[in-house]
Amino acid sequence: MNFTDLNLIEPIAKAIQEQGYTNPTPIQEKSIPEITKGRDFLGCAQTGTGKTAAFAIPILQNLTQNKFPNRHIKALILTPTRELAIQIEENIKAYGKYLPLKHLVIFGGVKQGNQETALKKGVDILVATPGRLLDFISQGIISLKNLEIFVLDEADRMLDMGFVHDVKRIIKLLPQKRQTLFFSATMPAEIQKLADSILNNPVKVEVTPVSSTADTIKQSVYFVDKENKLNLLTHILKNDISDSVLVFSRTKHGADKIARKLQKDQITTEAIHGNKSQNARQNALNNFKSGKTRVLVATDIAARGIDIDELKYVINFELSDVSETYVHRIGRTGRAGAEGTSISFVDGLDLLNLKNTEKLIGKKIPVIKDHPFHTDDLVAQKRDSNNKPMAANGERPTSSRPNNSRPNNNKNKPDGVSSNVGFKKPKNKNFTRKK
Ligand code: AMP
């Protein structure tokens, strides 16, 4: 199918052509005709499938064809992270460049003044994160009473990040009569329930389930002791890869540590995570996109929405406890059919996560042994909430807690997680990977 088969109005067709898109992606093929007809839509799709354009294009088309006498918010796109929100608004700007519609993105972590001024001038399409949106609503700056289209983006991530109550509060403020578009990479029971409660006879489309990784991504695993991971990273960046690399770190503290080490090794690097200001994050992202910095180290939350068409390499410094995260991470490369490479560092603490990840994606990831830090002697260890190995009895060794002081419980927690992370104990404590 070609975009010309989709009956798009001329200004949108022209803007899309300028983006270099010729064929709609599978989700767009289905969403564009149905959403322009006014149907509710349930898309089970991860980033990288073209899901943003799948809702942005028909929204632009619908709002342009409807008459709008005054500027009020007619479409709301709710998304969990600031990066994702910015990315979505950039897409709307690109596809809507020949249309008179006004769009705005709002998110927390920055002063509200500029956003407030822009809102008061009138906005047709609003992209928002839940917290800032509720702030503006409670101050009487935003009203959603004339809303026509509501998009809930990355619903599963909203749940993971603890935003689901905010989302439900916002939904209660929307007019009953509206078009609702719902997107989620996975459909856990709670998300399914939410979808059922807000969608009206939706068209359902599922593309590339989260458990599958694109065949264009070459995946590999490096077995390495925890203390050698930083040196292995420098080794790879100096000897094997000359391109830009996105490195994933489990924690904010870990991301900073990796960035410091690489900078010391003369590799231009910046880190982004939840403790950095929005401006710092955006600058780091721009520097990475422009090639000014070669390596960007990111936590999962900060990396959400990073959309770099030509990214060839992703390195997982640790594997996440949530196997689906692996699919999201490596999906940053190999986008739109391009080739990509993903490398995962695995120490004893990652072994169980590797096993779960391989189970999820349904394939074994080949081990690369040809490097100076390879080890065949990894033993699976349980991770405590501070990312440290637990002793055999499941307790944290007291000797590692000087003077019985309380551990700093936040330092090594995954970005965005404020309480202890549950971790399943391996059934077989001595599990080692079969060679
Ligand atoms: P998304 O899944 O929305 O994060 O989009 C992933 C990437 O695919 C973005 O870089 C888009 O610009 C790009 N993209 C979206 N739709 C198309 C299309 N029909 N053809 C080519 N690239 C596309």
Automatic annotation (TrEMBL):
Similarity comment text for this entry: Belongs to the DEAD box helicase family.
Protein name from the UniProt record: ATP-dependent RNA helicase RhlE
Ranges of compositional bias, category Basic residues: 424-435
InterPro entries, alphabetized: DEAD/DEAH_box_helicase_dom, DEAD/DEAH_RhlB, DEAD_box_RNA_helicase, Helicase_ATP-bd, Helicase_C-like, P-loop_NTPase, RNA-helicase_DEAD-box_CS, RNA_helicase_DEAD_Q_motif
Annotated region described as Disordered, given as residue ranges: 380-435
Annotated ranges, domain DEAD-box RNA helicase Q: 1-29
CDD domains documented for this protein: DEADc (cd00268), SF2_C_DEAD (cd18787)
Motif position, Q motif: 1-29
Ranges of biased composition (kind: Low complexity): 399-411
Residue intervals of the Helicase C-terminal domain: 216-379
Domain Helicase ATP-binding: start-end pairs: 32-205
